[in-house]
Structure formats: C-alpha cells, structure tokens
Amino acid sequence: MSSATQAFSRSSRLLVVDDEQAVCKILTSLLEKRGYHVTIANSAAQTREILDTNRFDAWIFDWKLLDGNGLDLARELRERGDQTPIVFVTGFANTDMALTAASIGIKDVLSKPFSSNDLYTSVERAIAHNAPRDLVADSPADSVLSGRKKAAPAGAEPAKPDGNSGLFLYVAAAVIFAVGLLVTYYILKP
After folding, report:
1. Average pLDDT over the chain, rounded to an integer
2. Do 17 and 59 form a contact (C-beta atoms < 8 A)?
3. I need a surface site. Which of 9, 18, 113, 155 has the fewest CB within 10 A?
4. From CA 107, how far away is CA 58, in angstroms rounded?
5. Which domain holds residue 144?
6. How far apart are CA 179 and CA 176, in angstroms?
7. At what angle do helices 166-188 and 95-103 cross, to 10 degrees?
8. pLDDT digits (tens, 9 = 90+) for 46-104
9. Which CATH number do you get for residue 71?
10. Is the pTM of this model over 0.90?
11. Measured distance CA(190)–CA(176) in Å, rounded
12. In terms of Cα–Cα distance, which of 29, 97, 34, 95 is closest to 61?
C-alpha cells in the first residue's frame, strides 16, 4: 500500500449498504483490517437516516436492498447534489446496470464474488478520486495504484478511459461478448 493510500485509509470513513448481515460483517472485517472506519446500513431508508447526520469518504452499495435497490438510491443521492464516490457490488451484474451505474457517476462495479484485493483497489481508487491534492502521490507508480492521475492543465480536454477502470473493462468485455453473439447468430442463421 502506498504512503498516500495509507493516509487515506487511516482516516477514511466508509458507509457499507447491504441487506445481508453476513456480507456486512465480511466487508466490515476486511475494511477495518485495512484501517477504514466502517458504518453499516441495511436498507435505503436506514441509509438516508445515516446520511442526514453523517458524511463519508466513500459508499459501498449493494444492488438488492430490502426496500429498493442501490442504483435508485445512488441516483436519488446524486439528484440531491451529493457526489460522494460510490463502489457498487452486485451478484447480478449486466451491461445495462453497468452503463446506468457509470451514467450516475459510480466509480466501480464489483461482481460478487470478488477478491479482497479487488475491494481494496476499488475503495482506494474511489477515495483517491476525492482526496485533497496534497495527499495524492506524485510518483507514476502511486498514481497507478491509487487510480488517480495528475490534474490536467486548465482548458485541457477531458480524460478518456485508459483501461484502468474496472467498469470500463467490464463494459468493454460485455460489448465484445454481445458482438460475438450477433456474429454467431447471423453466421448460423439459416
């Protein structure tokens, strides 16, 4: 873990939103071992209550919740103007969901089951995205590890996807798969 990432995790507060208690316990254990302060919510309603009085450095939302879904909750919070980075976890990943997630600014989509390293990388990338400029490492290796690039000069064009985004890779793989299915269908069509 880079020194910049260590600085983030020592003081970073995360909100984990999942209706499954076992998943909440596992995520809490993994993230607390990494030095994060974790708060749990089990529903959209509980999340709203917690967010009325607390702020977090990143949120981890599950797709299915007892009283809705994580995408609708994320959309609602974005419409309120909250731009806290979100890592989305789901056992039901598909292209439409990934595209919707990207359109509302979700930083990463993790498909269950995922490794602890995937979780750490996604959370660190999300937190680094919102980190104060003086905490972001300057070395190229630290930039790759944190997922953060140096700021572009004023007036520069927006950054293009560079292949380091899990969501970008997921969408690219889904598109390639879909094109393969279409080609196969038209070749085998009588």
Report:
1. 76
2. yes
3. 155
4. 10
5. 3-149
6. 5
7. 140
8. 999 999 999 999 999 998 899 999 999 999 999 999 999 999 998 888 888 888 888 88
9. 3.40.50.2300
10. no
11. 24
12. 97
